[in-house]
Specification:
mainly alpha; three-stranded antiparallel β-sheet; 18 helices
């Protein structure tokens, strides 16, 4: 079969001299399959992605097909590589937050928290973090867990044709992003959680908005159950798809809803508590089907549990009115101890007056900590937390300087993607979409 294009100066002519050529011109899939089936040894290799609406970012899937059955599935990653971990070595410890928040961009607060907990362990100030800062971290992470699960459920629904699930999922996520904007000033990539605490206190009226959100979500979440839980079409697309038993999950090191869908109740908030999670009343959600449907049900139930935690955190914050949100050590606390200026940006006039006209020592300290940053004792620490996708760990290494020597993240999206082949092989092409959606990978976290 020859293909020529005399009009295109960049495309010459080519001729296929060996192998079998299949010409696909829009006919029925059955006709294509029957043509391929004439030779049982033939396999067709198809690239799904990286520019594909159903691969959750720039993920490339290399699928080997026999008819419509997947005989082999492999991931091609690296299309969203940012070099974040390497770039952090050239910035101060505080500036590192603005890098890692951009990794898994659907759960930025978890990236920030894991990194800051590692830095705080090296600084040996874990016990000095103000209670209010820890409660605010929990509040933001659980709001973030809800927004992340909403995106997972919404995009997964869109990919199988359940468009109403997509529209209401993003409707609710918008409410969470509004809360993020109210509290941090940004909808994504916040850089709000800092070593030693958080950047600033809650703004006036934030707790009322949070309680309003809780009340609304208690009315909205049942809509997902009504649309999906017993829907025969939805269940038909998800049940027994992406099936992976507990022994396979453990062998691959998978965590998060993929692990809990096998019935194994492993959640770091309970098993290895951090940020005071041991003081909150909530239950680890599991399912027992080991498939995509079970992972959907786990995420839906986890949003209810997150609402319970947010409600408890809001009550605690109401009792901590005026409490500090950053450690008292001024050699670490910049810039979180600086009041926001009258224009909503920058320093307060009182602070500027102090460092510019009242205290030479304050000016010197301000200059040093802004330009150079604080020093972290030499050593290394690994801190894992439970992100929406599983165990997110930060391995932080210091050589005693003002910048990280090494920072490496164990991102659950990267580890969980190992299951792509075992979940997809032997199934249909259409089921690959469902299996990938049930893993919920975010390629910013995979490629970093």
């Amino acid at each position: 079969m020859a293909a020529t294009n005399q009009n295109d100066m960049y495309a010459g002519s080519s001729e296929t001299t060996e192998g079998k050529v299949f010409t696909v011109t829009g006919q029925d899939w059955d006709a294509i399959v029957s043509g391929i089936a004439e030779d049982a040894d033939e396999r067709v290799v198809v690239n799904m992605g990286p520019q594909h609406p159903s691969t959750h970012g720039v993920l490339r899937l290399i699928l080997e097909l026999e008819g419509e059955t997947v005989t082999e599935a492999r991931c091609g990653i690296g299309y969203l590589h940012t070099g974040i971990e390497k770039n952090m070595e050239y910035r101060s410890w505080v500036q590192g937050v603005t890098f890692c928040t951009r990794m898994d961009y659907l759960s930025p607060f978890f990236n920030e928290t894991a990194y800051c907990l590692g830095v705080e362990r090296l600084l040996d100030i874990e016990d000095d973090i103000p209670e209010k800062a820890s409660v605010m971290r929990v509040l933001l992470m659980e709001l973030n867990r809800i927004s992340s699960h909403l995106v997972c459920i919404a995009t997964g629904g869109m990919e199988i044709g359940a468009l109403t699930v997509m529209t209401i999922g993003f409707r609710e996520r918008e409410l969470v992003l509004d809360l993020f904007e109210l509290i941090t000033g940004l909808r994504m990539n916040h850089g709000f959680i800092r070593p030693g605490g958080v950047a600033q206190d809650l703004p006036p009226g934030a707790l009322d908005e949070i309680r309003g959100f809780i009340a609304l979500m208690k009315k909205r979440l049942p809509e997902y159950a009504a649309l999906c839980n017993a829907n025969p079409i939805f269940k038909g697309r998800l049940e027994d798809v992406g099936h992976l038993e507990l022994d396979g999950v453990l062998a691959l090191g998978l965590t998060g809803p993929v692990l809990r869908s096998t019935g194994y109740p492993w959640d770091l908030r309970k098993s290895e508590p951090y940020c005071g999670y041991e003081d909150y009343d909530f239950e680890v959600q599991t399912w027992d089907t080991c498939d995509s449907y079970g992972r959907f049900r786990v995420r839906l139930n986890e949003m209810w549990e997150s609402l319970k935690i947010i409600e408890q955190a809001a009550d605690r914050l109401a009792a901590l009115e005026g409490a500090p949100v950053m450690v008292g050590d001024k050699k670490i606390a910049w810039p979180s101890q600086l009041a926001i200026g009258s224009d909503g940006m920058g320093n307060s006039l009182d602070h500027i007056r102090h460092i510019m006209g009242e205290s030479m020592e304050a000016l010197i300290h301000h200059f040093k900590i802004v330009t150079e940053g604080f020093r972290v004792p030499a050593g290394q620490a690994y801190v894992p937390i439970e992100s929406p996708r599983g165990e997110l760990g930060a391995h932080v290494v210091s050589d005693g300087g003002t910048r990280p020597f090494r920072v490496h993240f164990r991102d659950p999206s990267f580890t969980n993607l190992q299951a792509t082949g075992v979940m997809s092989e032997g199934g249909m092409v259409a089921d690959v979409i469902v299996a990938i959606a049930s893993i919920d990978p975010v390629m910013g976290g995979v490629d970093r």
